[in-house]
Amino acid sequence: MESAQHGSTRIATPILIIGGGPVGMVLAMNLDALGLRSLIVNGDPRPRWHPKGSTHNARTMEHYRRLGIVDAIRRLGLPGDYPTDVGYFTRFIGWELARIAMPSERVKVIAARNAVATDQVPEPIFRCNQMYVERFLYQHLRSLANVDVRFGWHCVDWHDHGDHVKALIEERDSGRRVEVRCAYLIGCDGGQSATRRKLGIRYSGEGPGNSAAYLDGPMVATHLRVPDFYAAVKVPRCWQYRAYNREVHSNTVALDGLGEFIFNSRLKTAEEQPDTARIVRAFLASVGADLEVEVIGHSTWVAGRALVADKYGAGRVLLAGDSVHLFTPAGGFGMNTGIDDVANLGWKLAAVVQGWGGHGLLESYEAERRPIALRNTAAARRLGVGVSGTPVDAAIEEDSSAGAAARRKAGAYLSNFAPEFDSLGVQLGAHYRHSPVILSDGTVPPSDDPDRYVPSACPGGRAPHLWLSNGASLFDHFGPGFTFLCLREGQEDARIIASAAAKRGVPLKAIELRMREARDLYERDLVLIRPDQHVAWRGNHLPENCDALIARLTGW
């Protein structure tokens, strides 16, 4: 609702989102899926066209699937038959030190669709640069009736009045200002978040060290166009090409499979400006050949960080994504942790604004997500520090026995880093066991292994996945709200729990599934699954007071 009063324009919206990166945009989509309106502002007039991260992990892809956009996203970026290998070389036309072989996206998806019923990865990890996905998310967001998209606007200031928030937003080109009244303001405004700074919330954790190691300090990401790259570099294609020699240590990531790349190189100091000529020389030193190189743009960033905000918000102002955690890029956990943040936060905001969620529901957001950020940032830092320690002996490029020995030593070391590209435990293993809105059944979840995911319906964890007899995913049958999964004849149970949910206005869908594999995975007859696909409760019989159960799970 927009109206002119006393010469100013005022808008009322349930949720104001500051920041239009992937985390802010996916939050708006999660709210839309539950019928809640939002307004999203972003200072740039459109998503920035510069390469960023290139990993959308299995959990993020499940969230895209839940929002109905996964197939469109899988058509972006590299060709479907492009392999996603990581190759380690002295130089790209020199000696290959090691290779982590990984299939193309097409092969991965076909394998998932033909997997056994209990396979836990319905949506395999997707290698596609974030800039392509951001552009798609922006276009999709503009088609949603519940989302007021205002790119080219920024938030000038805001004040939390206790029962609502008032913010002032400004259109950058015209200077036009609008006063926004909202129930909640969400800061998805990145590592330099003005929202977090105004709240007085600081990061804690580890920053980069003082070493000269490759992934431990200021970096520059350079967008390159190299038309003759694949003609010159005749090795089997890679998604990432990494060079290790005495002259340069670098990482080159394929963007489109045609000749565009992102080239990551080290800066000497945080104040140093990218030197295009020096960066091109470093890239050509990585290749080992003189090629025509077009530099499209640079963007600086910092490696070696594992920082998490001390709090995830205050009052009616909450934070998500890089506003609350900063990663080193090893493992590709940063954006993905943010997408998982807003899968958690989105349904809780909808529940509270729509009246079926209690105040304790939003309090559970930090309790559930901050431990995951601590876990994930630590895992990324371990991986980054490890790869920076690759032994590069002086003889590594020699055509000699000493050179061969140096290459074997480096290759053996690099071959250990496969977990950087397949950390399924980090991707799917987030567990909210100690959450105040999870009802424990006394069982202990599997140990938290960053590399290995063990499916478990222990309350707090991701609901185990199943392929059904018709080839559909069980996840596709979950409702946008809560799902009551009954693994035996349970019409009366479904009626009772549906009645208790209806009395509180809680959206709930009941599913009856007779499948031995399902009962083996879930280990109980009855399961309540939250909108973010985490198990909230399970048992063989409904409790005597189902109203109290629903109240607990929805923060009352």
**CATH domain topology of the largest domain:** FAD/NAD(P)-binding domain
Quickly count the helices: 15
CATH homology superfamily name of the largest domain: FAD/NAD(P)-binding domain
* Rg of Cα set: 25 Å
CA-to-CA gap between the ends? 30 Å
Q: Architecture of the largest domain in CATH?
A: 3-Layer(bba) Sandwich
Coarse shape: globular
Number of individual domains = 3
List how many beta strands DSSP finds. 25
Task: Walk me through this protein's architecture.
The protein has 556 residues and is of the alpha+beta class. It folds into 3 domains: 2-78 and 128-207 and 308-380, FAD/NAD(P)-binding domain (3-Layer(bba) Sandwich); 79-122 and 218-302 and 392-417, D-Amino Acid Oxidase, subunit A, domain 2 (D-Amino Acid Oxidase, Chain A, domain 2, 2-Layer Sandwich); 431-553, Glutaredoxin. The protein is 30% helix and 24% strand. The chain contains 15 helices and 25 strands. Strands 1, 2, 3, 8, 9, 10, 11, 19 and 20 form a 9-stranded mixed beta sheet that branches. A 7-stranded mixed beta sheet has the order 6-5-14-15-16-13-17. α1 (22-33) runs parallel beside α5 (130-141), α1 (22-33) runs parallel beside α9 and α9 runs antiparallel to α10. The radius of gyration is 25 Å and the shape is globular.
